[in-house]
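Closing statement on the zinc ion sub-project.
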Amino acid sequence: MCNQCDYVNLIEHSGLGQTPNRLRVLEIIGNSPHPISAQEIIAALNQSRDVNRVTVYRILDLLVGNKLVERISAGDRSFRYGLAPNANHQPHSHFYCVECGEMECLRPEHISLDTEPLERSSFPGLIERVEVRIDGICEDCRRQ
Ligand SMILES: [Zn+2]
Ligand SMILES: [Zn+2]
Ligand SMILES: [Zn+2]
């Protein structure tokens, strides 16, 4: 959940044209306390207006391509969507519950991966993004 991000401003600065559906999708993702699936985004969107799945997937591709949203791989071979790192949000890792499939954002300071040794080595590639996922059993599922 975030009340620091100005979603209109984020879209405009990404170079992506602003449409009501793009803004709604970005708001739904930004207002969620944890990364959510495309199905959850579609369900939230359709509470206020009817948008077909193809349109939503196309919007998600655009938002990911313009680095507003991050596509996060979950353990169930589907994806979750969360806000991409920006001025208000540092890059961070995620926890995936193997029981219920929920993902949680981890605090940036708790897990970090040092890519410097790799960059200093003779590795010829350019690192664009690092994704670290911790799999386990969430608090709710442990209590049951
Ligand atoms: Zn924010
Ligand atoms: Zn769980
Ligand atoms: Zn996150």
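The first helix runs from residue 7 to 14. With this model delivered, the sub-project is considered complete and its resources will be redirected to Aim 3.
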